[in-house]
Write a structure and sequence with these properties.
Blueprint: H1 4-37, E1 42-50, E2 59-68, E3 74-77, E4 79-84, E5 94-98, E6 102-104, E7 108-117, E8 125-133, E9 148-155, E10 171-173, E11 180-184, E12 194-198, E13 204-208, E14 216-220, E15 227-235, E16 238-246
């Protein structure tokens, strides 16, 4: 017959080994969890662009909302920005700059503002602003999979890199407008080739290629959706742009 006392001794010994192993596993898991929680975890929660209507060659104010979900400070935080035709980082993207290295406290929220110039050689359409946290992987984070934020935006038709405002030589009234606007060209010194008005999508809602010199052009805005519109006056190679608001 088997020795029951001997078998029970081995059983108890094996059980103690298993219990010890279980305790070690729990302790290691706990230690690893503490280590993960103590690392910074930087995420971007939102990006806003101003103005609402964006044209090629114009300055854009970008506000980035950043959160550190970890309890540890992030040292040397850098965010890289690029413009892409899609939502994937690639070598075809247009680099528009990076933030200067900075520190961010644990469990904190900050706003980062930068101004960049929209490239002048892009066609109108939908693009994606890609913000990449810690592009050089210099910060050890609790989660490295949430370091990219994508913000879609609409680029309106190119207003030309030669756009400029020549003061009061062109006036548009009333602004805001309800049913009609008047484009006063009586003090504009050059011949006008055309007038175009575009909505925030860059779509032309009005065009006039027969503009009398030194005239006041009346344009009906009745039925137009409320919002901002760009009035562009072309004279040779120059483009003069004014913004109006339709109520």
């Amino acid at each position: 017959m088997p020795n029951l006392a001997y078998s029970l001794e081995w059983y108890n010994l094996a059980r103690r080994h298993l219990e010890t192993a279980a305790v070690l596993l729990r302790e290691n898991h706990y230690t690893d969890s503490i280590a993960i929680l103590s690392k910074p975890d930087i995420v971007i929660t939102a990006i806003t662009l101003s103005p609402a209507i964006i044209y090629c060659g114009t300055n854009v104010l970008m506000t980035t909302h950043v959160t550190n979900n970890g309890s540890t400070d992030a040292i040397g935080l850098v965010i890289k920005y690029s413009i892409s035709n899609d939502q994937i980082i690639s070598g075809r993207d247009i680099n528009i700059g990076s933030t200067a290295p900075q520190s961010m406290s644990g469990n904190a929220d900050i706003l980062i503002q930068n101004t960049f110039k929209m490239p002048h050689n892009l066609d109108a359409g939908t693009y994606y602003l890609i913000a990449q946290i810690d592009p050089n992987n210099s910060i050890a984070e609790a989660d490295e999979s949430n370091n990219v934020f994508v913000h879609p935006f609409v680029l309106s038709a190119n207003s030309g890199i030669n756009d400029f405002d020549i003061g009061n030589t062109i006036s548009i009234y009333p602004n805001p407008a309800a049913d009609v606007i008047h484009i006063d060209l009586r003090e504009f010194p050059d011949a006008v080739d055309r007038i175009e008005i575009r909505n925030y999508l860059g779509q032309t809602v009005y065009s006039n290629f027969k503009v009398p010199s030194l005239s006041v052009v009346q344009v009906s805005t009745a039925g137009w959706p409320s919002g901002g519109y760009s009035v562009q006056v072309a004279s040779g190679e120059r483009r003069i742009r004014k913004m109006i608001l339709v109520l």
